[in-house]
Amino acid sequence: MSNKIRVATTSLAGCFGCHMSFLDIDERMLQLAQVVEFDRSPITDIEHCTNCDIGLIEGGVCNSENVHVLREFRKNCKILVAVGACAINGGLPAMRNFIPLEDCLREAYFDGIGVENAQVPNDPELPLLLDKVHPIHEVVKIDYFLPGCPPSADVFWKFLTDLIEGREPSLPYELVHYD
Amino acid sequence: MKQFIQDLVTKNHYKSTHLLQVLRDVQTRYHFIPEGAITQLTELLNVPRTQIIGVIEFYSFLHLHRQGHYELLISDSITDHMLGKHELMAYLSEKLNVGIGKVREDGLVSLDNTSCSGMCDQGPAGLVNGHALTRLDKSKIDTIAELINQEKPLDEWPTELFAVADNIYKPDLLLNSQFTPGAAIKAVFERGIDATLAQINESGLRGRGGAGFKTAMKWQFCKEEASDQHYVICNADEGEPGTFKDRILLNSYADQVFEGMTVCATIIGATEGYLYLRGEYLHLHEPLLAVLQQRRDAGLLGKNILGQNFDFDIHIHLGAGAYICGEESALIESLEGKAGIPRNRPPYPVTSGYMNKPTVVNNVETFMAAANIAINGGAWFANIGTEKSKGTKILSICGDCAKPGIYEYPFGTTVREILKDCQAEDVFGIQIGGPSGLFISNQELDRKLAFEDLATGGSFIIFNNTRNVLDIVYNFTHFFAHESCGFCTPCRVGTSLLKKQLDKIHDGHGSAGDIVALEELCQLVKNNSHCGLGQTAANPILTTLERYPDLYENQLKNISYEPGFDLDGSLATARRMANRNDAAAHLEQIEDELATHGTTSPGAQA
Amino acid sequence: MSKTITIDGQVVPFEDGQTIMDAATAAGVYIPHLCHHPEYTPHGSCKLCTVKVNGRNCSACTFPALEGQEVLNDTPDLNADRQKITQMLFVEGNHFCPSCEKTGNCQLQGLAYHLNMLDNHFPHFYATRQVDASHPEVMIDHNRCIFCTLCVRASHETDGKDVFGISGRGLNKHLIINSPSGELKDTDISIDDAAVHICPTGAILIKRTGYQIPIGQRIYDHQQIDQVSLAREHHQDEQ
Q1: What is the pLDDT of residues A19-74, one digit of tens each?
Q2: Which of A18, A47, B467, C230 has a 20 to 30 Å separation from B239 between CA atoms?
C-alpha cells in the first residue's frame, strides 16, 4: 500500500452532478493526485471499498442498495462526508416523500401513459424502494457535510486540502450555498 | 342552525371575547363546527374567519370535522396508564367497533385520547360529550357500549358512571377551616382595604400554582396601576397531569374561592372577575353557577355588596382542552376568545392583562387561602410552614399508593411522611409538580415540601419499583409535544424532536451518541423557549437522566449508530407491490460491525 | 444624557419605549432575526434574536431596553443555539433550496449561511404540505412557511385586509387563508399588498418573476445577512 490518502466516492440517489462538480477542480486534480489515490469511485471502476481515509457520498438513500453501499462506505472509511443537497436533506428525490410510494409505483408501472403488461418489476437483482428518501445522516453516522447543489469545485478543493494538510475543515461564507 | 347560532350570539351579547364559549356550544350541539356556523359567526361577531378557524384548530375539544354523536375521550395520563388504560382502550375500541382517533361509520360514536382529565385518584377516567367518567373498568365499558348502541341520552345514563368523589384524606389549616359565606368580605370592610392587604402580606402567602410569586405583592402592583377597570381572574385550568386539588376546592369549597376573588376585587378595585374553568371539569359548571347565584341572592356578589357600595360579579368561562391555557397570559388570551398563546412579557398581567387592563391572575387555592387569611389574619397563616414557605399546601396524591386523594400539609413536611400517610410502599420515585416539575428518587425522601426545596402546584405522583422510568418519561414527553402551542420555534419543533429522540432510545434503537444528542436538545428547548411549557418540557428527561443514567444507557445498543426509523418496515410497500420476499427484499436494522474492513457487504448487488 | 445599554461591551444608546432590537438596529448592531420587521408589531416567535440580558435569555425584538442592561449577542453559545433553531426550521418544513425560486434571496437561507450551517442536523419531518397556485398572480408554497406571521401582520396592519391567519397547535401549526374555499384566489389580496412582498422565505411568491435575476447574482450570494439587514432596517427606522 502506498502512503497516499485513499478516497472513495459514490452516488446514491443523486444525479452525479456533485461528481461532475468535483471534476471541475480541473488541473488541480493533478496536484491532488500527488497525495490522493482513488478507491471505489466512478473514476476507477473498483466495485467495492477497501480500507479508506475519506469517503464522499453524493445523493440520499432511496432504496435497499443505497443502504448497503452506504454501510459499506461507513464500515471502510475513517471519515465519511455527505456531499451535496441530496445527501444532506434528501434533495430533489425526496420530493417524492409527499406522495405515498404505492401511488408512485402505480403511476410508473400501472396507470402511466403507454404502460403495457402492467406489473412492478420483481427481479431479485433489482433493489426495492424505501417508502421515503432519507438524508444519509439518518442511516449512518456522518462526519462532515458539504452543502450545495452541487457544492462548487472550490468547496471540494478547500475541504480536501484542509483535511490533507491536517486542518479542521471549514468553509468560508462565499463557499456555503444550498443551491 | 341559523336560529341556534343567532340565539347563541345574542345570549353572549355579540361579544367576540365569547367566541370560545360560543364555539363550545356549537360543538356540543352539532359535534363539530359546521362551515355555515363559521360564516355566520364571522358576520355576527365581526371577526375574521381565520380567527375562528384558528380557535377551532387550537383547542382539542373543538373540531372542523364531525365527531360522533357520543364523543368519547379517554384520559392519557400516566396514572390512567398505571391503572390499565391501554387495555381498556383496546377493549373499548373493540366493543364499540370504532378505531382510536376515528368516528364510527354510522356517526354514532367517536373515540380518542385526551390529556389528563384530572381524575387521577379515580381513574382510568374519560369524558363523554365533555362529562367526566371515572373508575372505568370492563363492566362499565360494557354498560357504556350498550347505552351508546341504544342511543340513550346522557341524562338517562346511570349516575354512578359520572360519580366523582372528593377523596379528602388529610385536611389541615384550610380544608378544616370553618367558613361562613361573607365572613371574609365583612372582615375586609371592618379592617379596611390597606390593612387587609397588609395582613395578606404578613401571611407570606405565595401563589399556589407552583411559581410562588408573593400574592400581596401581585395585588399591590395591580392596585397601584391606574386604570378605569381592573380584573380578577381565578385560574382553574388545572391541566398539569396528576393535579386534581382544584376540582375538590371548587366542588366543596367554592364559596371560599369566590370569596377570595371578592376580597382581591375590593383591594385592587375590580368590578368584574372570571373563573377560567378547564373544559374537563364541565361537571362542576352548573353547581358553580348555582353557588354564584346563591352569593348574589345573599348580597355577596353583584351590586352594592353587603351595602358597602361595592360592585363585583364573577363569570365562568370554560376551556376546551389546551394545557397551555394554564399559563396566565395564555389563559387571558383564551378568556378574550382567542387561541391560548402566551403573550410576550413585559408587560405583565398586573399592568396589562385581560382586555389590556391591570389584572390579577391567581390559582384556586391561593384565593381560598386569601379568604381565610382575611378572616383569621396574617399570623394565623404565617405561624405554619417554613421561613420562606408559609402556611400549608394542598396536594393531589396519586399513582402507586393505597389512598390516592387530597392531602393538606404544612410546608416543610418531608416526602417520607407524606408517603406514609397515603400508604405508599416499595417506592421507586416520585414526580413532584407534574411532568413540568421534577422526578425524585427513593434516596431523596427526606426532602421537604417547600418553595426552597420541592415546589409543586399540587401534583404528587408515586411510582413503585415495578415501574419503568422510560415509560414514564415517554408518556410525559409525548404530552408536551401534544400540548405545545406552536408559537415559538424551540418548543414547537423541539418538543416533537424530543419525542422522536426519546422514542428512539425508549424503543431500543438508541446507540452511543443518542443520549448526548438528547441532552443537547433538552438544553436547547429549555433555554430558548418562549414560556414555561417549553422551558420545562425537557424536565422529565433531564431529571431522570441525572438520577438514572444507567437506566438510559442500558437501553442503548453497543454500536456506533442505528437509524431512527424502521429500515425493513420502510421496504414493506415495495415488497408487497413487487410480490417479493427473497433475502434481498429485506434489510437488517443494524449491521454487524465486527466484520473486517474490506469485505463485501452482505446484501449488495454485485 | 441619553440612556444606554451595552451589547457585547459596546455602549448603545436608547430611548424609552425602544426594544433591545430597536436600539441595536439604530446603533448598527445586527441581532439575527426572522419574524421581526421594524414596521410591524414585534412577534417574538422565531427566537433567533434570543440574547442574554443580565444573564437571562430574552427575545431582543420584544424585550424593552432598560438603563444599564448588559446584553450578550454575538457569542459562540448564542450563535450555536441560533444555528440549531435554524436547523429546526429547516427540518420542520420542506426547504429544498435548489428547486426554490427564492434561493439566494431567502432570509432563512441567508441566516443559515451567516451562521455557517452546513447540515440540517435533526431528522426531517417531511410534513405533507400543500401549494396554493389558485391566484393568477400570487402563489403560496406552504412547504416553506416558517410561521413568522409577517404576512398576517402586514395584511392586517398595512393592507387592512386580514388575508392570512395562523391555525393549529404545535407541529400542526399552519398558515390559513381568509376565504370560504381556503384558497388565495377567493380573497381580496392584490399584488400591491405589503403582505405579498414581506415573506422572508419562498412561501409567498409573485408568479412569473422568479428567475429575473440569475442564481449566483442574488442578495445573499455576495452579501451577508447582517449587512443586508442593517442597511435595510436602519434606513426604515429613520423613516
Answers
A1: 999 999 999 999 999 999 999 999 898 989 999 999 999 999 999 999 999 999 99
A2: B467
Helical H segments across A28-135, by residue range:
28-35, 64-76, 84-89, 101-106
- Interface confidence, given as ipTM, is 0.97
Minimum-distance CB partner of C167 among B54, B483, B494? B54
CATH code for the domain in which residue B481 is found: 1.20.1440.230
The gap from C-alpha C73 to its chain's centroid, in whole angstroms, comes to 18
Partner A contacted by C18 (CB < 8 A):
no
Set out the domains of chain C in order of their start, with CATH numbers. Answer: 3-80+228-238 (3.10.20.740), 96-225 (3.30.70.20)
pLDDT at B606: 31
DSSP string, B446-475: T-BBSTTSB--SSEEEEEETTS-HHHHHHH
- Would you place residue C208 in the very low, low, confident or very high pLDDT band (cuts 50, 70, 90)? very high
Domain for residue B565, yes or no? no
Which of A80, A83, A88, A89 has the highest number of chain C CBs within 10 A, making it the mutation to test binding with C?
A: A89
Average pLDDT over residues B370-393: 97
Task: Give Cα separations from B463 to B9, B399, B425, B427, C151 (angstroms).
Answer: 48, 6, 9, 6, 48
Number of A–B residue contacts, CB under 8 Å: 92
CA distance B354 to chain C (A): 19
Q: How far apart are CA B273 and CA B361, in angstroms?
A: 10
Query: What pLDDT is attached to residue C160?
Result: 96
What CATH class is the domain A5-94+133-170? alpha beta
Whether B200 and B299 share a structural domain: yes
Question: Which residues of B fall within a CB distance of 8 Å from A90?
Answer: none
Nearest CA in chain A to C225: A173
For chain C, give the percent of residues with pLDDT over 70: 97
pLDDT at B597: 38
**Cα separation values, A155 from A83, A98, B11, B346, Å:** 10, 31, 68, 46
Looking at the fold, whether B181 and B306 belong to one and the same domain comes out as yes
Interchain CB contact of A166 with B (< 8 Å): no
Verify whether the Cβ–Cβ distance C57 to B527 is below 8 Å: yes
| Interface probe with B: pick from A78, A128, A138, most Cβ of B within 10 Å | A128
